[in-house]
Amino acid sequence: MATISCLYAQDTSGFYHFNREEQLLGPVSRQFVAAKTDAQRRSAALEVYQRLGELLALPNSWDYPFDTLKQAAVSVLQAADNKCRLFTWNLILKDGRHLYFGYVQYRVKKEWKLEALLDTARNKIPDITYAETDASRWPGALYYNIQPFKFKKNTYYLLLGYDGADARTNRKIMDVLNLNRGEGVLFGVPVFRRKEGDYEPCLRWVVEAADQAVISLRYEPSRDIVVLSELTKAYEDAPDEPSFKVPSGDYHYFARDSKGYWVFHPLLTDFNFGKGR
Length: 277
Description:
- By secondary structure, this protein is of the alpha+beta class.
- It has helices spanning 15-29, 31-34, 38-56, 67-71, and strands at 4-7, 75-78, 84-92, 98-108, 111-118, 133-134, 142-151, 154-163, 169-178, 186-187, 192-193, 205-210, 217-220, 225-233, 245-256, 262-265.
- The longest helix is centred in the first third of the chain and has 19 residues, at 38-56.
């Protein structure tokens, strides 16, 4: 789907139409997991993809909250600066793989734009930690947190997301949404330093562990840091592979330095977790 651009409108007279359509989409979205066959699940995910895209293309869609979809299976995130909104959801296949769908809706002055996100599950990017991708090569994730931040005088959006990956592993992904280059939606910005003075920053950060492991990756607003699980082998002689990694019970964290980079720091201590996710 090409980028759609329309004049931003304040008129909310069409909310009856949005509500009616959303009530129809809610039960369909629950079929991403509940349907008995992969074909039925794909059909449900694609139906939501098409019909939600049509709704988001309407001028006054920005003002509609989509609360019913939030309560179903679609993540709806709006940035604190009120300039962009993300819709993401995942389709879980019988073999344990996850496929992702989404839209980014964002404003540029008095115009708003809409871009469809296309998961690259069938065409994996070799190393997503160093890949800048556009909407057609989106790595795919179910986003649960968005935080605007400044870097080199521009505003970017820190994204935290879940990727169910496959039957052996699951991942948490820390990414950056870039709306500054006039080339539509871009993901991945070199802002993640592995240590102070790292001159080759990563464009995103991935934490991958065994499928049943519960990985923490959460933003803590009280200190403006991102906390992540330390991983260790599930048992002493386990292979050094993500499918055998589990959280150790300790945590690392990312904090911004004086230049705006997010810098990795080992072993977070003396911190009471707040309401971050």
